[in-house]
């Protein structure tokens, strides 16, 4: 029973990893662009949730939606004001631009929200379900289901709709897409908006269970990179599988070996996987 | 007869006469102030704690320098200045070491050589205290440590170092005495779990608590070191649930302490008692985050505001008037250090470093002379206060109340804790 509880906990944790990682893999898949500010988007999603709860009230549906909308707008703005310009520059400028953006967002958050740890007041999702003796925190369950649904929806959107095809076309060959009458800027702005929105929802859902401060983006940003590399850069389903696997390994190794060993186990396997399969689980070679 | 007055030897009572007779010597006053160099992190990560402690030692200096007859029991509060030094006042010279040990070392040297301070006090982070104190030792200047708790600070054979605060082993000893009291009262404490964040702080306190528990004949069911930046503690909570100890002792920072309380509720695990070791459990954001789910958790603090009208309550009013906040345990320990130093200066009757050192060695303050909940102040040969101790407090509603030891308790202990079932 205890083992089952550990496994369920690990899978729920993994679903959340998958949720906040999918946005990162989307931008890479769309633009071959690494967004170091992704963890900060998650952090901002958490603060949007807090502000909505404190100012307007409302449940997780309200603040989750608000975080998604706010971050979508931010993602589009970031693309229009920063990314569009640096993609014309050298590779190093591209990498460092989002790194600078990450620091800008983090320290702006420090300035506005201070370094104090905050957490959401108890919400309607604060309870725990007892399913045949397995305890499942509702907030994590909802986050897990949302993650799964969003991941699948994003995958279907990319592979089954016209806009999705246009997005992929731009990713494949920008010039060829332009010749086909696709406006790459619009598509890429949309990709940034979607990626940031998914980070925003992830942040809002995680805010239900985790206390945080402006530096939380660092932790989540790093985890997102691990998940995306593990799953294969650019692959949305890959991020899903990788998130679940990493969550499960962490939970099992933390329970059986002790929490300080869980990262050794995870990163050990991570390095081993890259040794045998550098493109990740589902990445294209 | 007029006695010669110089900076190092101000004779009681003679200062005033000297001033009136000395013509044109404006630098000679009633009694030259005693310069105390104070090292705190006034910027950087720990700036909030450093600034709060700065305000606390300023209040301590105010208590000594001005007449505060209402603060019954506190040495030197009654009259203005230090009687033993002809009414001399404390002059504080603050230095910001930014939490950087090498800056702390340089600034300690600057305080001694350039500012010519008579005595030093500080330095919050143990790492900074470890580098600043050898400078004082080499120069033969007394250094009073207010709140740095690392064990090795007093294990270097220093002769000029005096630490007023309790340290890890004192806290561990207090916890064991508390458990013994609980067993006597019929609340079974046979096994404990020690959960600690894995940097210097958590590891050293965790080691001390585990050792003390084994010595006291308790079973240590789990010892769980973890990283404070973790985002998930379900596995740890399940380990605890599996072994089911009577008491779980957390040595944690803020976010992780909150996460543990939330996860314990989510996984329906509540031991008879949770005992937090200050830090995260004392952070202002801890109580609002967990008050609905962790009623009755215990914590330690040597500071208690006390009843309205008490000396401690009046001191808290002074502090609140200056900062807008209640005095906290850490700042209170620094305030107590400054008051202890002032008492020694008074008995030294001189600012000669050797005389101050001798007076500090002879310190013997009783509990009623203290603002903090120590059993007294008396230094052993390593410079550690052997009477340092702590209260245990329990979360009731939105506040912690002192519940142990009985003599100081303001409310009755609730055992077992109620958690979310309150």
Structure description:
The complex is a heterodimer of chains A (285) and B (422). With 285 residues, chain A is mainly α. Chain A has one domain (10-114, 136-276). Chain A has helices spanning 2-31, 38-55, 60-86, 91-113, 138-160, 162-172, 174-179, 184-209, 216-231, 236-256, 262-276; strands at 128-131, 134-137. Chain A has a two-stranded antiparallel ribbon with strand order 1-2. In chain A, helix 1 (2-31) packs across helix 9 (216-231), helix 6 crosses helix 8 and helix 10 (236-256) crosses helix 11. Chain A is globular, with a radius of gyration of 19 Å. Chain B is α/β, with parallel strands linked by helices and 422 residues long. Chain B folds into two domains: 14-19 and 29-166 and 307-369, Response regulator (Rossmann fold), CATH 3.40.50; 169-301 and 391-408, 3-Layer(aba) Sandwich (Rossmann fold). Chain B has twelve helices and twelve strands. A five-stranded parallel sheet of chain B has the order 2-1-3-4-5, with helices on both faces. In chain B, strands 7-6-8-9 form a four-stranded parallel sheet, sandwiched between helices. In chain B, strands 10-11-12 form a three-stranded antiparallel sheet. In chain B, helix 8 (254-266) links the parallel strand 8 (247-251) and strand 9 (273-276). In chain B, helix 2 (47-65) packs across helix 10, helix 3 packs parallel to helix 4 and helix 11 packs across helix 12. The radius of gyration of chain B is 23 Å and the shape is globular. The model of chain B is unreliable at 1-5 and 7-29 (pLDDT under 50). Chains A and B meet through helix 1, helix 9 and helix 10 of A and strand 7, helix 7 and helix 8 of B.
């Amino acid at each position: 029973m205890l083992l089952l509880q550990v496994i369920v906990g690990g899978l729920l944790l993994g679903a959340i990893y998958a949720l906040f990682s999918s946005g990162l893999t989307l931008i890479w898949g769309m633009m071959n662009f690494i967004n170091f500010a992704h963890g900060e988007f998650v952090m901002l999603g958490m603060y949007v949730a807090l502000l909505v709860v404190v100012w307007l009230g409302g449940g997780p549906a309200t603040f989750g939606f608000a975080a998604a909308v706010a971050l979508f707008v931010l993602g589009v703005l970031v693309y229009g004001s920063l990314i569009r310009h640096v993609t014309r520059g050298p590779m190093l400028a591209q990498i460092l631009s989002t790194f600078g953006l990450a620091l800008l967002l983090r320290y702006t958050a420090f300035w506005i929200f201070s370094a104090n740890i905050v957490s959401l007041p108890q919400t309607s999702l604060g309870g725990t379900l007892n399913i045949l003796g397995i305890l499942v925190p509702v907030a994590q369950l909802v986050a897990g289901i949302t993650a799964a649904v969003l991941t699948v929806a994003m995958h279907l959107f990319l592979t089954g709709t016209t806009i999705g095809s246009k997005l992929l076309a731009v990713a494949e060959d920008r010039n060829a897409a332009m010749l086909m009458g696709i406006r790459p800027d619009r598509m890429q702005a949309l990709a940034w908006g979607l990626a940031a929105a998914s980070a925003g929802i992830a942040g809002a859902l995680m805010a239900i269970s985790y206390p945080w401060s402006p530096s939380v983006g660092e932790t989540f940003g790093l985890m997102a990179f691990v998940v995306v590399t593990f799953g294969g850069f650019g692959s949305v389903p890959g991020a899903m599988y990788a998130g679940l696997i990493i969550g499960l390994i962490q939970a099992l190794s933390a329970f059986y070996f002790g929490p300080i060993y869980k990262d050794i186990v995870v990163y050990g396997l991570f390095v081993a996987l890259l040794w045998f399969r550098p493109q990740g689980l589902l990445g294209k070679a | 007869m007029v006695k010669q007055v110089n900076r190092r030897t101000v004779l009681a009572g003679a200062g005033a006469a000297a001033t009136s007779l000395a013509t044109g010597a404006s630098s000679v006053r009633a009694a030259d102030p005693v310069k105390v160099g104070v090292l705190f992190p006034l910027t950087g990560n720990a700036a909030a704690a450093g600034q709060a402690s700065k305000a606390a030692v300023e209040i301590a200096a105010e208590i000594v320098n001005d007449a505060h007859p209402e603060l019954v029991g506190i040495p030197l509060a009654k009259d203005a200045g230090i009687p033993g030094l002809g009414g001399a006042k404390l002059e504080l010279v603050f230095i910001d070491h930014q939490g950087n040990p090498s800056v702390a070392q340089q600034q300690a040297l600057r305080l001694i050589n350039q500012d010519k301070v008579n005595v030093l006090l500080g330095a919050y982070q143990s790492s900074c205290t470890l580098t600043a104190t050898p400078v004082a030792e080499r120069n033969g200047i007394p250094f009073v440590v207010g709140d740095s708790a690392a064990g090795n600070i007093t294990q270097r054979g220093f002769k000029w170092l005096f630490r007023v605060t309790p340290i890890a082993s004192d806290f561990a000893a207090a916890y064991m005495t508390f458990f013994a009291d609980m067993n006597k009262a019929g609340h079974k404490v046979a096994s404990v779990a020690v959960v600690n964040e894995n940097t210097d702080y958590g590891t050293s306190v965790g080691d001390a608590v585990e050792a003390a528990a084994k010595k006291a004949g308790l079973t240590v069911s789990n010892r769980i070191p973890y990283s404070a930046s973790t985002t998930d503690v379900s596995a740890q909570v399940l380990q605890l649930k599996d072994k089911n100890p009577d008491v779980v002792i957390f040595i944690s920072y803020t976010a992780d302490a909150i996460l543990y309380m939330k996860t314990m509720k989510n996984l329906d695990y509540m031991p008879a008692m949770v005992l937090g070791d200050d830090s995260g459990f004392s952070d202002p954001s801890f109580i609002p985050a967990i008050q609905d789910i962790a009623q009755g958790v215990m914590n330690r603090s040597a500071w208690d505001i006390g009843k309205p009208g008490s000396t401690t309550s009046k001191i808290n009013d002074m502090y609140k008037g200056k900062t807008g906040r209640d005095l906290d345990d850490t700042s209170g320990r620094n305030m107590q250090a400054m008051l202890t130093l002032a008492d020694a200066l008074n008995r030294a009757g001189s600012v000669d470093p050797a005389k101050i050192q001798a007076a500090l060695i002879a310190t013997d303050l009783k509990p009623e002379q203290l603002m903090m909940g120590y059993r007294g102040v008396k230094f052993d040969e390593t410079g550690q206060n052997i009477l340092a101790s702590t209260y245990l407090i329990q979360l009731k509603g939105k506040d912690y109340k002192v519940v142990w030891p009985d003599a100081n308790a303001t409310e009755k202990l609730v055992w077992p804790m109620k958690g979310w079932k309150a």
